[in-house]
Amino acid sequence: MLNNKVLLKDSCFKITSTRLAILEVFNKNDKPIDANFIYKKLKEGINEVTIYRTLTSFEKSGILRKVDLRKDSVYFELNNDHHHHIVCIKCGIIEDFKENKEIEKLLDQVVEKSTKFKNIKEHSLELFGFCKVCN
Amino acid sequence: MLNNKVLLKDSCFKITSTRLAILEVFNKNDKPIDANFIYKKLKEGINEVTIYRTLTSFEKSGILRKVDLRKDSVYFELNNDHHHHIVCIKCGIIEDFKENKEIEKLLDQVVEKSTKFKNIKEHSLELFGFCKVCN
DNA sequence: TTTTTTGCAAAAGGTTTGCAACACG
DNA sequence: CGTGTTGCAAACCTTTTGCAAAAAA
Q1: Which has the higher per-residue pLDDT, A35 or B2?
Q2: What's the burial of A96, exposed, middle or buried (CB within 10 Å: 0-12/13-18/19+)?
Q3: Strand C footprint at Cβ < 7 Å?
Q4: Is residue A1 predicted with pLDDT exceeding 70?
Q5: Neighbours of B47 (CB within 10 A)
Q6: Residue A134 forms beta bridges with which residues?
Q7: What is the band of A115 on the pLDDT scale with cuts at 50, 70, 90?
């Protein structure tokens, strides 16, 4: 995909088939993804170590962001539209919900009141419960 | 501490010196704590495996709750007053902030709009940035 | 005494590191 | 061609599991 090449270039990454393949996995699967998921999708011709290294560098450059899902591995998402998740404790199903002005405003107020911080870079906000099926 | 014995009894745990020691670590250190922190504090006379097992059972029973700090190990806090954290990405310093009515109201609205969930059990809300010293 | 809890050893996952070979630009 | 990237092997770190010994009620 052309966009991914631009994305890599804009972040000063060399364009490699490995990186494009990993980005495609994110494009095609609109949900939080961990290293193992990518590995299972790409299996042939890619090394797990490379996946970990790529995820780390993509996160540092801002292409990806971490998502805290309380699982044993680290999950990432494309750092596009800002949203959060509701996660089923039992079956693991995930529903997204959008970040909104009210949430932003509340968090701004929190930071204003803070003594040790004057601005924040990111935040996690994930809900955990039983979905209607599991409940 | 007497309170901890009551706490254990109320959760139907047998009262053991190991469990009391672990609870004391939480009492004396008012911050999120991981297994290794407890191990370093108690070193003699306690096994790491026991710490993991205790943390897990304390969380299940509601004595502790998990905190998502984006570190490599799992952190816990006493499940007392509901609050969240602002974490410095560089030095790791943590500032607490209280859960409030507005936040609760916003989350209720999120769940109302949800198609797959009708109520949630818990949520994470942690802010990440550089503290005034590191910034 | 009975059931739960703990310790020990070992293994299981996930992730990281060092180094040499490779490939993008 | 030179530097950034990848693969491989090995190590690392956190956490889990099985089983026998120890302790709480």
Answers
A1: A35
A2: middle
A3: A 14-17, 34-36, 48-49, 52-53, 56, 72-74; B 13-14, 16, 18-19, 45-47, 49-50, 53-54, 72
A4: no
A5: 11
A6: none
A7: very high
